[in-house]
Design brief:
The chain has 390 residues and is α+β, with helices and mostly antiparallel strands. Helix content is 32%, strand content 34%. Strands 1, 2, 11, 12, 13, 14, 15, 16, 17, 18, 19, 20 and 21 form a 13-stranded mixed beta sheet that branches. A 4-stranded antiparallel beta sheet has the order 3-10-8-5, with no helix packed on it. The mean pLDDT is 85.
Length: 390
């Protein structure tokens, strides 16, 4: 039988070509929607775990700078020519060691002159005292007038004053003479000389050389306010807190430091608190001016609750929260307060109990509170993830 394509049949064919796909799409979309709704109603598979009980030392880190405990610029205290130096630049020097010599000749002459004046006024005082003694003896026999005694007393007092003044000048002359020998006021390492021998120096010439102590030394640093409070809570005014410093190559210094200074306010620009620790430095490995990594460690371990950072949502501004599965296998949101992070975990200060079942995997599938979930093991969850990736 031969099929004849008429206009009517052609119109029906065209209509079928247009309508059938539309009906198919509608039907498939409807069916897919039903399937999707069924899948949405199916509980999401999640992995849960209890909050972590951690037992660890509290620590904080900063960057510090090594400073000499004592750093002294040696200055000329009397004018004169520098005649000699008694050290090599960079040497270790002892307290009281002679370092530089200013020409002492004029100061030695001043000492001799002052001593001569002392001797002269001592003799005058002795003579006037004898005259006064004789005057006092004669007045008792009424052989001299009272005015004579008064004059003898005045002469004796005048010579006493002159002698006292001469002694003070002698003492000053000796002090100035001692200043011509410039000695180290501390044990330490001496730096580069700034004014060499042969130059005339005065009180305004500036530093001649610097001596800096090397044992012990200071390490100064600043601690963030949050770290400061964290360590303060677990220590008694930082007593027992160990301070460690690390060299640039990664090696830690063999001795721990002791905190000996904490500032009384937070720096308004950095939001941190300046602090300082003292380190023994017998080998001179800690060099003033060097920058070090500083780590503070509490003296005793602290127990605290923690949860993995990956299972939390939110941020530091709005706050963090986790999903907890209740006895009906439904999720409940719990807002938590965190204080610090350790090994990719948040330390939880409040908001959770150790008995709470926290969702640690599958968090991305939870959209709303009271959503039903199915708890599976971590191994099963990982197998499912691998299967979905294939």
């Amino acid at each position: 039988m031969k099929f004849k394509l008429t206009r009517k049949r052609l119109a029906i064919l065209v209509l079928l070509i247009i309508i059938v796909p539309i009906i198919y799409n509608k039907a498939s979309g409807f069916v897919a929607g039903i399937i999707m709704q069924q899948m949405m109603r199916m509980p999401k598979e999640v992995v849960v775990d209890y909050p972590i009980k951690m037992d660890s030392f509290i620590s904080a880190e900063s960057t510090g700078r090594v400073e000499a405990k004592y750093s002294v610029d040696l200055m000329a205290r009397v004018p004169g020519f520098l005649t000699k130096k008694y050290f090599n630049e960079g040497d270790f020097v002892k307290k009281g060691q002679l370092l530089l010599q200013i020409d002492p000749q004029e100061y030695q002459l001043e000492v001799r002159n002052s001593q001569a004046n002392v001797n002269q006024y001592s003799a005058l005082l002795l003579n006037s005292q004898r005259q006064l003694n004789r005057a006092n003896a004669l007045i008792e026999e009424d052989l001299v007038s009272h005015s004579y005694v008064d004059q003898s007393l005045a002469s004796r007092n005048q010579n006493q004053a002159l002698l006292d003044s001469a002694k003070q000048k002698l003492q000053l002359a000796k002090v100035n003479l001692s200043y011509t020998s410039i000695k180290s006021p501390i044990d330490g390492r001496i730096g580069k000389i700034k004014i060499t021998e042969g130059n005339y120096v005065t009180l305004t010439s500036g530093p001649l050389v610097n001596v800096s102590s090397i044992d012990p030394v200071y390490v100064t640093f600043s601690l963030r306010a949050s770290d400061f409070v964290k360590l303060l809570k677990v220590s008694d005014e930082f007593k027992g807190v160990k301070v460690k410093v690390q060299f640039e190559g990664g090696k830690w210094y063999e001795k721990d430091g002791i905190i000996d200074f904490v500032d009384n306010q937070i720096d308004k620009n950095s939001g941190s608190i300046p602090m300082r620790a003292t380190f023994e430095n017998p080998k001179g490995w800690l060099v003033p001016g060097d920058y070090m990594r500083v780590k503070l460690v509490s003296s005793q371990k602290v127990n605290y609750m923690a949860v993995p950072q990956a299972c939390t949502k939110g941020d530091a501004m709005s706050g963090y929260y986790v999903w907890v599965v209740d006895k009906d296998n439904k999720v409940v949101r719990k807002d938590i307060k965190v204080s610090d992070e350790i090994d990719n975990n948040w330390i939880v200060e409040s908001g959770l109990k150790y008995t709470d079942k926290v969702v640690v995997a599958g968090v991305q599938d939870i959209n709303t509170e009271r959503q039903s979930v199915k708890i599976i093991s971590k191994a099963d969850y990982e197998k499912k993830q691998k299967k979905d990736l294939k």
